[in-house]
Amino acid sequence: MPAKNDYSVSGQDRVACFAGKSDRRTARSYRIGSLCAKMPALKQDQGPPRSMSEKDTIAIQLVREALLQSCAPGAATDEVLNKVGIDPQLLQTSDARVPATAYARLWRLLARRGDDEFFGMDPRKLKSGSLEFLCRSSMIQPSLAAGLTSGLSFLSLMLERMPAQLVRQQSLAEIVLLEDELDPRRAFTYFTYWMIVHGVACWLAGRRIPILAIELRCPAPDFCDDYQVMFSENLRFDRPRTRMIFSADCLDLPIKRSPEELKRFLAHAPANILVKYRDPESLASRIKHDLRQLPADQWPETEPLAQQLCMSASTLRRRLAEEGQTYQGLKDSVRKELAIVWLAEPSISFAEIATRLGFADASSFYKAFRKWSGSNPGHYRSLILNEAS
């Protein structure tokens, strides 16, 4: 591949975890056709896909993180894990996964025993019942903007070191943590906070709110795969501020929740805000991985792609449908991921981004980005680059 088409991410953009370690190969040495030899399980005679319950799992690394400041090691940890149905021996492994329901039981047990719904990660306890009060005080507000403002005020009052503010800037919104400490918190602390805030926001709105980016002051942890699935594939570490960025259109959504709906939500929390694990070996994940390696003008159409994957076009569509995906949706998803990374590079013009993504002109890219994210790309670039404001 000519050098001008090698659009691999470099430098500080490598902190955006969406590419993953396996994506470091260049397109020069990689083509989608190689999948045919690597994916024998995807031929037409493959058995039925794994059940959804087997995919609802959490990495063992997050179990260790949850226990770190909330449970003494040794017998106390073993007793807690056995009580929620997690084998303590799994803590000694690096690639084990546990059911999301078991992780949710662990969360609730630790919160109940420590009277702290924030795992002991703040000098002040987020006392039991805080999540319920957060929801009750937010659901009586007329809009998501008002609900988030109310909820963030409550969390800022309850947690000593996690004050936060909702900021609306043109087509974008951000929730910013107003930290005054020099040393950042660990990644798990930030992501637990975001899980609470984002999970409640989605419930208030009655729909999932897409996250465009999350920036964190802390270094990238050794493991962030599950964080990408739970929040966004665009995670940026070692940034000046910790913030979550999303489309401002969501803020105008009305809140229409009843006490009965709140009761059901709390009965299943936090399992209902732990997003399903995305199988990295799934067909959709592999196709997206390969699309990232090629310039957009070299992406195959459906028929050639199916041939390269050793299946018919109808089988390809069916396999993707079983995963809740379409090929066009995968291409749009990769275009959005790459656009978000390149928009953070001021040296790359909008016209160049449009060309890289296979658009005829910058205007077409603008329209597509607005459709993907609900935001103007110029607004997004301005917000990302204006980190000192």
From TrEMBL:
Residues 281-383 form the HTH araC/xylS-type domain. Transmembrane segments: none annotated. The keyword Isomerase does not apply. InterPro entries: AraC-type_N, Homeodomain-like_sf, HTH_AraC, Tscrpt_reg_AraC-type_HTH. One of its GO terms (cellular component) is cytosol. Keywords: DNA-binding, Transcription, Transcription regulation. The keyword Transcription applies. This is HTH araC/xylS-type domain-containing protein. It comes from Pseudomonas fluorescens.
